[in-house]
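Quick one, T. Sequence first:
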Amino acid sequence: MAESLLRRRGKDLTADDYELIQRLRLAGLLHDVGHYPFSHATQDAIENFCAKLTPFFKHEDVGGKILEYDEDVRRALSDDGINPSDVASVFSRSDPDFKLANLISSDLDADRLDFLPRTSHFTGLPYGAIDLDYMISQLCEDNEQRPCLTFRAVRAADAFLIARLEDYQQVAYHRTVAASEWLLKEVIQALLGLDDNDLDVSEEGIVTAIKDRKWARFTDDDIYARIDRELNSPRKFGDPIAELMARAMLARKTPKMVAEFHRLARPFQPGPGAYDVYVELRKQLTECALQAAADFDIDPRLWKVWHERKALTKIGSRVPAPALSGALDEEKNDDEDQANQMIRLTKPGGESVVITSVRHAMCSILADYNVEIIRVFVLLPPEQVGRRAEIEQRFRERVTHAGLPA
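Structure tokens:
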């Protein structure tokens, strides 16, 4: 991507250009090196666990510490004349003037262009059929040196964004995936809460583990082993609910969905008499789940009201005009950075526009909508497995819009 974009400048690539390309390649290779075991599931579990204990470390932060303190990684980069901090600054987006960081993190980055075809291949779903080569060939820079696509690629960009949204709904937000991730997060939080837990996920603890070369051994298998050891110990988490969840997770017995609400809707606009269906329905479903927990004698911790509100782009189309032009005050730098990560269209070297403002782009309409999903899951104890249909019927009767798809 970087080479295609730089060649659009119309000059032969220099030694400095190739060094820049190498820096971006390494940032792409290492941008997820800080992911926890089980990726975002463990990151979310740690964030919830650390909410009142210690500052939380996102995987980008961990990746930066790995490049800073892991001797093997530092040596591999330094021996080739690469400054590790130069690589980390790309995926951390710590340099606002380095616009090419969008190739690593944005609505049009190498990660997204890679995972869609790969996910499509391994799941057998069709949503990753994007015009990858053409989009790369149409990369250029606008007059502020932001990575953009030429106007010729508007259809390819449309198809890409829509495919990504479909992928989220059919893979990342699939009911089985969502239920399994909830279960996993709960079990990991139970592990972290054990009195003799030796996983220090504070900044100091993570840095120490990296320096001692122990962080690389914190893997999916390590999590599995810890769960298995706990289940085979006399303590068994010291909590029958955590034990039930852990056994269900290892046996791949996922919680069951007993109600669902799924729609494409315009973002809620506050005002006199305004009614946010998504928020109000979450409240109704939560109240119904608590009542069902009591009526069916199933512990409330075995219920989950899962919800997601997803926009087509990083910040959707409803962005104030100043945010899109970049003329923001100091307090809104985060908004500006988000706006600059949207897909932009331009003539090489010209003024760019976000794709959602192009009237003949489908995204100009679809970006005005969110995908809204709410689901109720329950992990049924063995003695209650036969009552799923009865529980589903309860939600159909008591909650407006709730119920399984026909």
